[in-house]
Amino acid sequence: MSHNTFGYLFRVTTWGESHGPALGAVIDGCPPGLRFTLDDLQSFMDKRKPGQSRFVTQRREDDIVKVLSGVMPQDDGSMITTGTPVSLMIENTDQRSKDYGDIAKRYRPGHADFTYDVKYGIRDYRGGGRSSARETAARVAAGALARLVIPGVTIRGALVQIGKHKINRANWNWAQVEQNPFFAPDAEIVPVWEDYLDGIRKAGSSVGAVIEVVAEGVPAGIGAPVYGKLDQDIASLLMSINAVKGVEIGNGFGSAEITGEENADEMRIGPDGRPVFLSNNAGGILGGISTGEPIVARFAIKPTSSILTERRSIDADGQEVDVRTKGRHDPCVGIRAVPVGEAMLACAIADHYLRDRGQTGRLK
User: Fold this and answer.
1) Which of 45, 128, 203, 349 makes a 20 to 30 Å CA pair with 241?
2) Known binder of ligand: residue 21?
3) What is the pLDDT of residue 101?
């Protein structure tokens, strides 16, 4: 299987399967001299790990990240990157492969079972193997390092919609995101989502979601105008996350509903003599290049395909079958996709930051 690597200068290769002994990432191109502690990485891993509320899968994984190479330990317990490949590993400790024995030859609707079998002639039915969302743990670890590459940048994500229930943007408060199990920026939506997801979970069903990720403090001028657009690469990395079926930047699809006068981000000169944008419909990117405004992206997550309700399908022998997926699954996988989206946005910006530094020399 090829195509396990993304990025150009900040280059990440992930490896491992859902029910293997471990998974991880190798980061090539991480600059030397970045200082961090294991806690710096673990804090992001803890946001993504399963089993933290009744609204996510009850698989119990500590998701402890280990750094195997590319760093020099320091006396104070921190470590500094050396510029050589950084290898990160997360051990799997709570696999239940037997839960998947009944579907060893059956294709689960909505999953990659059929397409993997068609392409490779073999598939890992134990939780989906490489196609499992478990792989995203490695991305979150890589994203934690990517944040260190881009000084002064803050990257945050929030869940803004579950099913048909959307947040009230007038209530947006970043401090609320860490205060509830949904990463919701609107305190009033939390009880609504709790009641709604309790019903979905008890029915053995699932539902989709929309996540918004925002990067503030990104310098103007990174990206390239034709085949190296910053928004192009952000969209590509967000689209690569499991279960993502749509991505938009800034006003996105909403821009199709308004006029040019409404959509144009007008400009004036600020008190410090620098340009000021009066709106940010472009999501911080124009012509593939950052404007200095916050970069805003949203992505849609489909309902978790693993559900208890029987669905019609076929098996590897060409027989028509009904499939019910056992095991521990997220009723809304979009909840734990929030830190994954943050990580992929961080990796895209870090890669473009290094590209711009190498090409123009203006960033330090």
Assistant:
1) 203
2) no
3) 60
